[in-house]
Amino acid sequence: MTAMPIFAGGPGPEDRSRSIRRALLFLVICAPIWLVPDLLGVGHPIVLVAAVVVLSYVFLRHEGRSLAILGLDMSWRRLGELVAGFAGGAILVVVIALVVRLVLPFPWAWNPGFSAGMAAWSLLWLLCGNAVEELVFRGYSFERLIAGLGHWKAQLVTALLFAVSHVVNGWPWHVALLGTTVGSLLFGLVFVRWRSVPAAAGVHAAVNWVRDLLLCDPPTVKTLVAPLSPRPWTSGEQLSALLIMDGIFLVACATLAISISRRPPSAHASPRP
Fold it and tell me: In whole angstroms, what is the distance from residue 96 CA to residue 157 CA?
C-alpha cells in the first residue's frame, strides 16, 4: 500500500523537511513526558493533558492552523469520537479474552476482591494518562511526520519511539517490541481514519482498562473476572496470549487500513496553513 496524502505538508522537499523538523522539535519538548520513568505517576495526568494541548495549540497557531486539525476542538462530535473509540477498544479486548478462554486451559473465576470504585478511578486515570500518550505520539508530531515522511514511514517512526518510551518505563524490550508497536499502529490508524486524537485516546484507554478488567492473573482490585492459573504461566502460554492479542489487533489494523485506502482523496486532505 502506498503512502497516502492525508495531511497537508506542501509538495516540495523544503516543506517536507520543515514538517519533520517541527515534529522532532515537538517530541524533544515532550521528552520529559515519554523518557522520564513514572512521570505520569506524579500528580494527576490531567495536568499533562492540558500542558500538551497548550503546546499543540502553540505549534499549530504558529502555522496558522487550529486544534481542529487534531480533533481537539470542543464539540459533541469529538466527545462522540472518544466514546466510539472506547467502545471499539473494549470490543477488541472482549474478543481477545474469549479467544484466550478457548485456547488456554485455565479456569476463569470472578474476583471476590473486585472494587468497582477502584476500577472507576482506574478508568479516569487511564483516560487522562493514555490521552497524554496519544497527544504526544499520535497528535501534532504524528500529523507532521505524515506530512514529511508519508503515512507508513510516520507509523514506523512513531511505533519505535512508543516502544522506546515503554522500555524506559520498565517494560521488557520484547514485550514492548511485540505489543506496543502493534498498539501504536492501531492507534495511529484510528487517528488517520477519523483525524481525531480523542478517538485514538478512547481506543487506547479501553484496551488497557478492559485488559485489567478481564485478563489479569493474578487479579487485582481492578479485575472483575480472569483466567486463574494454579501455577505461573509458562513462556509458551504467555507468548500464545501475546500472539492472540497482536493477531486480533492486526486484523483490526488491516480493516482500518482498507477503509482509509478506499476513502476519496478529498476526505484525506487537511486545510493548508
Answer: 27
Closest to 144 (Cα-Cα) out of 25, 264, 2, 31? 25
> pLDDT tens digits for 71-117?
999 999 999 999 999 999 999 999 999 999 998 888 888 999 999 99
Phi, psi dihedrals of residue 226, rounded to the nearest 5°: -160, 160
* Cis check: omega of the bond before 218, within 30 degrees of 0: yes
Q: Which amino acid is at 52?
A: V
| Cross-strand pairs, 226 | 109
Segment 49-75 mean pLDDT: 96
The model carries a pTM of 0.90
Using DSSP bridges, classify how beta strands 108-110 and 225-227 pair: parallel, antiparallel or unpaired: antiparallel
Q: Which three cell numbers stand for residue 261?
A: 485506502
CA dihedral sign of residues 60, 49, 196, 187: positive
Instruction: Give long-range contacts, CB 8 A cutoff, 24+ apart: 116-123.
Output: 118/221, 118/222, 119/209, 119/212, 119/213, 119/221, 119/222, 119/224, 122/209, 122/212, 122/222, 123/205, 123/209
Contacts of 97 by beta carbon, 8 Å cutoff, 6+ apart: 210, 214, 215
Residue 155 has pLDDT above 50, yes or no: yes
Single-letter code of the amino acid located at 157: V
Torsion angle (degrees, nearest 10) of CA 41, 43, 46, 50: -110
Do 119 and 222 form a contact (C-beta atoms < 8 A)? Answer: yes
Residue type, 7: F
